[in-house]
Amino acid sequence: MGNRIITIGRQFGSNGRLIGRKVAEKMGVTCYDKQLIKEAAKESGLWEDLLENLDEKPTNSFLYSVVMDPYSFAYSIDNSSYGMNLNQKAFMATYNTIRKIAEENSCVFIGRCADYVLRDFDDVLNVFIYAPLDVRIKNVCDRYTDLNEKKAKEQITKEDKARASYYNFYTSNKWGHIESYDLCINTAKIDVDAAADMIIDTYGKN
To answer: Is the separation of the CB atoms in 117 and 99 below 8 Å?
Structure first.
């Protein structure tokens, strides 16, 4: 068996990040999330601030290109960076970093299209974490005490739209659709520890 890799896609407010970190902790491996930006910046030479601003956040022109051709980048993913805009260069920096890390170490990746980036790797389990809107609103209000329910709902809608647009543009899959993942977990029915155990147990059975 090669390196043990788990990727976590997540709806905003579903506790996906917490679950990914718990999985990594229980497995004794590194969890790559925002940390991935620093690694990508180091490897690519792009400014860290630039990568952070573009991380899973499409621009208006980017959103327009998604509407016009939702898979326009996925089919040219292995091309050189010639002619790419900043969004695409930022994605490729992250893309190359994810593949390099996966070749060298067992780990957990959160978001950043890692399931698609590693689609040709063995020993990868792709997970999607979701929850009903009311549960996510409560989670977001608990996490960000300055947000009321209305603001929390607006933030959830904004974040999920950005993540879906980002994922759908850079992959040939659909964000959140069960066909794109090996395991989907509703966190309204299970807590963080139990979800982490379920993921690790499922990985062991693959």
So the answer is: yes
| Cα–Cα distance measured from residue 202 to residue 56, given in angstroms and rounded to the nearest whole number | 27
Question: Rounded CA gap, 147 and 137, in Å?
Answer: 10
Per residue in 88-106, pLDDT (tens digit) is: 777 887 888 899 999 999 9
Q: Buried b vs exposed e over 138-175: b needs ≥16 C-beta within 10 Å?
A: bbbbeeeeebeeeebbebbeebbebbbbbbbbbbebeb
Question: What stretch of H or E contains 67?
Answer: helix 60-68
pLDDT of residue 137: 97
- Are residues 40 and 94 in contact, defined by beta-carbon separation less than 8 angstroms? yes
